[in-house]
Design brief:
Elements (H helix, E strand, L loop, with lengths): L8 E5 L2 E6 L1 H13 L6 E5 L5 E2 L7 H7 L37 H8 L4 H16 L1 H20 L6 H9 L3 H8 L4 H12 L2
Antiparallel strand pairs: 1-2, 1-3, 3-4
Helix pairs in contact: 5-8, 6-7
């Protein structure tokens, strides 16, 4: 069975980066590292989440290539509306998903007075909140991604706890100073995850 791995990954053997890129390249590097019989732990991390990824390296390189083939995930093409076919009854399909929302009576009263009704008002409120908090959300995701990686790779490194406090206090200069004593590949990858590049 071929799995779909649209993200990029980075692998470490001990504190040394051994691969970065598509899943297959990382799996092959990890297999080679495990065959070297060194005692250093070998881990693969998802570059999007910073989380450890468990893989099966058993089998030949060809079997691994089949199992972990990089599959380009294309955006699904938008459905084209045929102009010859008359439109059916009801509302057009706009990709809107109905879900239940629980609000207080005063919220429903306010929504009822909004132009376009409750659904339009809620969509506008959600879009406005998304725009207003976009920077904060990106920073939080970068911190979580960096935290995931650092807890797996840096828990025994000097200044780990203080670095975590600096990370979540958004004291980036202090965070970088603390990581200067860490192994170069671990430090560079943690900073890469934090910057989102």
């Amino acid at each position: 069975m071929t799995m779909i791995y649209p993200n990029t990954y980075t692998s470490f053997m001990g504190h040394r980066c051994i691969a970065s890129g598509p899943m297959l390249a990382n799996v092959l590097a990890v297999k080679k590292a495990l065959e070297s019989k060194l005692n250093d732990p070998v881990l693969i991390f998802d570059d999007v989440t910073g989380s450890f990824v468990d893989v099966n390296t058993q089998g030949t390189d060809e079997e691994l290539a089949q199992r972990y083939a990089q599959v380009d995930v294309a955006e699904p093409e938008a459905e084209q509306v045929e102009t010859d076919t008359p439109r059916g009854r009801g509302r057009p399909k706009l990709g809107v998903v109905p879900r239940e929302v629980t609000l207080l009576p005063r919220h429903w009263d306010w929504l009822a007075t909004q132009p376009g009704g409750a659904s339009v008002a809620l969509r506008k409120l959600v879009e406005e909140a998304r725009r207003a908090s976009a920077d904060k959300d990106q920073r939080r995701q970068a911190q979580e991604r960096t935290y995931n990686f650092m807890t797996a790779m840096g828990g025994d490194l000097p200044g780990f706890e203080e670095a975590m406090r600096a990370l979540f206090a958004n004291k980036l200069e202090h965070f970088q100073e603390l990581l200067n004593t860490w192994p170069e590949d671990v430090r560079d990858y943690a900073l890469k995850l934090l910057s989102g590049t």
